[in-house]
UniProtKB/TrEMBL annotation:
It holds the Pfam family Glyco_transf_18. InterPro entries: GT18_cat (IPR026116), MGAT5_Glycosyltransferase (IPR052105). It is an enzyme of class 2 (transferase). GO terms for molecular function: alpha-1,6-mannosylglycoprotein 6-beta-N-acetylglucosaminyltransferase activity. Residues 28-563 form the Glycosyltransferase family 18 catalytic domain. Belongs to the glycosyltransferase 18 family. It catalyses: N(4)-{beta-D-GlcNAc-(1->2)-[beta-D-GlcNAc-(1->4)]-alpha-D-Man-(1->3)-[beta-D-GlcNAc-(1->2)-alpha-D-Man-(1->6)]-beta-D-Man-(1->4)-beta-D-GlcNAc-(1->4)-beta-D-GlcNAc}-L-asparaginyl-[protein] + UDP-N-acetyl-alpha-D-glucosamine = N(4)-{beta-D-GlcNAc-(1->2)-[beta-D-GlcNAc-(1->4)]-alpha-D-Man-(1->3)-[beta-D-GlcNAc-(1->2)-[beta-D-GlcNAc-(1->6)]-alpha-D-Man-(1->6)]-beta-D-Man-(1->4)-beta-D-GlcNAc-(1->4)-beta-D-GlcNAc}-L-asparaginyl-[protein] + UDP + H(+). This is alpha-1,6-mannosyl-glycoprotein 6-beta-N-acetylglucosaminyltransferase. GO terms for cellular component: Golgi membrane.
Amino acid sequence: MLNLDHEDFPNCRPKMEWMRDNWETHACYSELGVDGSECSSFVYLSQIEQHCPPAFPSHSNIPPASVIQSRKLEELLLLLSDSEVNYNFIKSRITRLFPKWIQGINELQKSIPNLWNRPRLNLILYLGFLSHETGLKFGEKSTTGGPLGEMVQWADLITSVFILGHNVSISSEWNSFKTKADEYENQGPCPRLDGKQIDLIFTDIMGLRRIKRKKKNFFSSNKCKFRMLDSFGTHAEFNSNAYFKAHSSQIGGKNAWGGHELALQQFLTMYPHTDDNTFLGFVVETYDFHETVARENITVVYGKEKYMWKDSEPILQIAANYTQIHATVADSDEIMPAFHVTNHHLLTGEKFHRLLRGSKIFLGLGFPLEGPAPLEAVANGAIFINPRFSPPKSRKTYKFFGDKPTLRELHSQNPYMERFIGAPYVFTVDIFNQNELHQAFQSALKTNVTPYLPFEWSFLGMIERVDVILHKHNFCNLHSTWPPFEAASLEVASSGVSCQDFCASKGFVCERSFFSKINNEDILSRFSSCNGGFSRASVTYAPAICLLQNDSMLFSCATVPPKEIKRNVISRQKCPPASLLTRIF
């Protein structure tokens, strides 16, 4: 008997009912084996569209997938061809680091023996923020001190998916993307089985907004396949249009970058901000200098544009008491002449790393937030003085975050380094508190550290994460079973504490995909008798004791619930945070 009511396949019965009356509306159904019988429709919905549970062998019309195989640098550079300006920085970084990417993929092959026998995926990468239509000119500014964090992340993602052997199309201009996307577009309602199906689409918020505006059908038919590079992350409160509109007065601000209503794990962040989004990250490049680089009494100030130095005089005064001051400011020849700052102008690659290798301190001024440079400094043996924020910076207190789709509160310039690295490599202090800053310099100068790089920022760590994103994250099939629910540990969080913070305090992480498994009375009743019965609501702190979630889009690890609400916490297996971030998620 056909199982049309499997809990993991809620669309099976309605899809079967539709097929009974409509299988003849397009020839593709009969071409794929549907003949009007219940069994043929079930096979199609199980094996082709995957709306029903597997019950029969795979459909014979499905062609075998090609296997992936390694590639060469020259092939990759040829893919970056739809703009002369946009890819200069990206090409330079890829070329410089490619030998180490080769080393990383060779290391991965040792742990995954069948690496080259897996399906070769069709991937489209659209770097929307570089398009000339945005008017931002990030490609041109990359050589004069413009924001490089996004460039770094895109370069490393491009190299990762390519070196893993997949079929990659890359665009930064709309017309180029449209041409490539059109090649994969379905001409009928059935999935394509000729090898021309899109497996994943990587883009950014600007790219997604343009796709939604200019290719609505393409977006709606491939919504589950999008992966969004989203530097600062997206919270459930901003992802759902209905929720934001209903609660905008409490949340405050606008929602210019949110409202896309994807699964929160489809948003890929620069740092591991929340357990709701997926940590993509980037690689911290390192250099093996053939000669010894002497470490001198130097502070390199973190601020590559002059505006970042505003109000820094009292900070520099203290720094000048202990060390020489060096800078890499691109848009000024002279900075703070009273402090004799040595400005190297914009340095990238080996020259910047040589400067860090010969310095003792890397001093943050509070901006840019969560950039790559502090990790590069620590990887070269310099100690990072990380500005602490009081009050913390968020969309409610800081203009930069005013329209970001997140409620995160940053307690320092780089919260990851504060939380996961810390002393002796990182000293997080109020740089405007003279006593604290004096103590930080004194402690840093008497501390000897060796270069340090956490695994998740290595080439192997990045390739592992990308491989998981490609092969384990599946938001098109409701029955996706990764991570397996057997790995869950169910606990009740303290009042007024988010699931992710509670999990972190126990050495766990919150796994958002598990919420759908426990959003039922049978499981929640284990934690309370609920004599008054269960209620339902569309709120970001459900499921909770005696409270079921009405809207699956609002499942959230990051939301801090009202203090009177107690929440169930779903966690992965206990594991040290650094390896967990890298090897599992």
